[in-house]
């Protein structure tokens, strides 16, 4: 079943003003600024992540996501999957080592939903921030903001999501952990995982291709989510909804916007998934409860504001 894809690797986010974006991702979310490059891109990570970076910010004229990448166990796996992606009919772009700072070669490919994905195997490792691998303390003392632990997942909107889901399942070894179906059995949303997490990427059917709904970062506890809500108010950050709980994945969550209009999420908890688990199914007529378990009412802004 598994194809040698381990976990999310990095996501490149377009922002309108890099300095304003850093106030959000570095100072508010608490991601750690690790580097910058000649293009002006900024590299960040959560404090528990061992690779040098997981988030890349690029200043651009429009907000959204350039691509999201998944890390493979080795370079041989990248070669094998590259050939399978070509045979599947994907358009391939070979990105040389060093195009992203301290990252090895990447293979970028398109998808029926209009999103760009990457696979890679090599990236410089800097270890967990402020902790040793021998006798580590519980947590670093110099964290700021929401103290985000890691880039966890992204939710993507686009057409033909079932074809993209089939691509990631059949070639990269993702499992379908959860889904939303209508009364005819048509899948409207799918939540995919490559490990034990509730999801590593999710999709919702939408007519416009290549859209980003949110980028999500993991916190340890519900108390951390409530503290994040306080920080959102303290900084007059634009709030979308929360704190609340999802029915889908059962994560405890809050959503808010960066200065460019990209939606962020921080959450805690959530379900786990093993390959022998059947997908959890929510029916479309219960979508309000599936998304916002407490209110049980859909938020139009949550469903329609995309970048």
From TrEMBL:
PANTHER family: GLYOXALASE FAMILY PROTEIN. Belongs to the extradiol ring-cleavage dioxygenase family. Its cofactor is Fe(2+). Its EC number is 1.13.11.2. Keywords: Aromatic hydrocarbons catabolism, Dioxygenase, Iron, Metal-binding, Oxidoreductase, Repeat. Homotetramer. This is Metapyrocatechase. PROSITE patterns: EXTRADIOL_DIOXYGENAS (PS00082), VOC (PS51819). Residues 7-122, 150-269 form the VOC domain. The lineage of its organism: Bacteria, Pseudomonadati, Pseudomonadota, Gammaproteobacteria, Oceanospirillales. GO terms for molecular function: catechol 2,3-dioxygenase activity; ferrous iron binding. It catalyses: catechol + O2 = (2Z,4E)-2-hydroxy-6-oxohexa-2,4-dienoate + H(+). InterPro entries: Catechol_2-3_dOase, Glyas_Bleomycin-R_OHBP_Dase, Glyas_Fos-R_dOase_dom, GlyoxalaseI/FosfomycinResist, VOC_core, Xdiol_ring_cleave_dOase_1/2, XylE-like_N. The keyword Isomerase does not apply. It comes from the Bacteria. NCBIfam families: catechol_2_3. The keyword Metal-binding applies.
